[in-house]
Amino acid sequence: MRAALKTEDGRFELADVETPRLPAPDWVRARVRIAGICGTDLRHWKKHEPELACHIMGHELAGEVVEVGEDVTRVAPGDRVVIETVLGCGHCDWCRARRYNLCPDLYPTRTQSVSRAYAEYVVGPQQKFYCLPDHVGFDDAALIDTFSVCLHAQHLSGLTINDRVAIIGAGSIGLGQLMLAKASGADVIVIDTVAHSLGLARRLGADAVVDAGSADPVQAVKDFIGGMGVDIAFECAGGESMPTTLPQATRMARRGGAVVIVGGFDAGETAIPLEWQRIQMSEIRLIPSASFAMRDIRAEQGEVLDLVARGKLRTQELITHRFPLERINEAFDTAQDKERTGAVFVALEI
Fold this sequence. Notes:
Blueprint: E1 2-6, E2 12-16, E3 27-37, H1 39-42, E4 61-68, E5 80-83, H2 93-96, H3 106-110, E6 121-125, E7 129-131, H4 138-141, H5 144-157, E8 164-168, H6 172-183, E9 187-192, H7 195-203, E10 208-211, H8 217-225, E11 230-235, H9 242-252, E12 253-261, H10 276-281, E13 285-288, E14 294-295, E15 298-299, H11 300-309, E16 319-324, H12 328-336, H13 338-341, E17 345-349
Parallel strand pairs: 8-9, 8-11, 9-10, 11-12, 12-13, 16-17
Antiparallel strand pairs: 1-2, 3-4, 3-6, 3-17, 4-5, 5-7, 14-15
Family: Belongs to the zinc-containing alcohol dehydrogenase family.
Pfam families: ADH_N, ADH_zinc_N
Domain Enoyl reductase (ER): 10-346
């Protein structure tokens, strides 16, 4: 099959590689149709990481089932599906408790099968494949992974109707967080430095937006609320922004409020000074959120598919660019340089 392989300098090169086979009778093989580029992928872009050389990356994908094992009952060849890529080992305490997003072997496990979106075919266990309604396109479905991250963060936050919420970062994660918060009855202010992203946030229902490049975002949030601070601040920028945005989030939260850390960190230690005395004396909760899994009896990815199918989460406004797999390096450059290109969610057509 055709695949985009990571190079030592952090780019991609196309190559013909072996098509994955079904390793067990309850596994499924699908032809990938659409794959997305997210912030996690961009943190590896053009970085010298020899350990990733020749690897197939990508974890936001939808496609069509082409082969099933003899024990598969969930899907059939020809089904249009979205594929969940959060796959744990299945044997550890966290997997047994259905908190597989916390599996110690999550990344080594998922990257061997379902988390290989930048290729023509992927395989995975049948429970990771969700059939799409006819009116949900492959491109719509490619955003379901992103929105599932947001839903997990909202579940952890305890957000409820009439809460006041600040969201730092208006990328696809921040905009998904916005739509979920508004659907739950919250008042939401969104902070970013990119004008087109803030404009999109407005169109998706934000009650207020702040350009952090021209205004003090903490003061703007307090003015929005009336001086007290928000019930919940979601940090959705992550990466290199975190030393600035995480302290800001803690200053936006009211006494007794919460900060949910959705944006990702790079590997290793990251030193971020915080006003720990004020955080402690104000009982501000810091809530790390990692990917998604189950909530009670429901898979969070399945819940998001239902929300998209019922029109409660919008997708098409977020899909700003589409590229064929052959232009994957151009696609990554476009996604990275969002201030110039206006990129939000960049889709690869495989």
